[in-house]
Amino acid sequence: xxxxxxxxxxxxxxxxxxxxxxxxxxxxxPGFHAVVLHRAAHWCWTHxxxxxxxxxxxxxxxxxxxxxxxxxxxxxxxxxxxxxxVVVGETAEIGDGCTIYQGVTLGGTSLYKGTKRHPTLGRDVxxxxxxxVLGGFVVGDGAKIGSNAVVIKPVPAGATAVxxxxxxxxxxxxxxxxxxxxxxxxxxxxxxxxxDDPLGQAMRGLIDSAAGQEHQIALLWQAIEKLAGQPGxxxxxxxxxxxxxxxxxxxxxxxxxGK
Length: 259
Prior knowledge:
259 residues, alpha/beta, six-stranded mixed β-sheet, five-stranded parallel β-sheet, 13% strand
């Protein structure tokens, strides 16, 4: 038990630069208190003391602002960072080394008792502030959930989920799709990613393609004018409304999608 407590304290010191000492973590970190109280609540729950488990869970919610159902399963070195307003459902499973920030919901979309209604987080998953992970699916090892994302489908290992509903940025070469992809063992806060939203990437690709096509069309009409031997005039070969110049405002559209 004491080795597990030391591990919980050390993981907070490793991931939170504001933590200055073990004593500070033990006395002032509600995320640490929530994990310790949940272990007591989960023991009661699994030993048939359902009411006692819920009572400890409600007490923990009152003193920490973190609501973890006593039936939920937590692994080692789980860190609830600034985690006011976190809700973890009954059948949720949180793997070793996960970090969960404030306002996160690990919720369910089914009302059937006895079924897997809540998500399973693999090892070293980061769930950023305000994210909602809803359903009985798996979020793979090392995955990142962006702030305020609404995740309603499985997330592959190492991927990053962003947006509403969440879109998946897959990992590259087996590494995580974030700012620390060159160092897989380094912790990155809030699931920050260098990769852009996939929808934004698609829009930029369409803008670049449209701009390139307009440029080619203008060149073609200019070439036809020269072949017709009447530059600047219209005839059967060169209609009066031919696009001899580029009018597509690619830069303006790129700015609208954040390029």
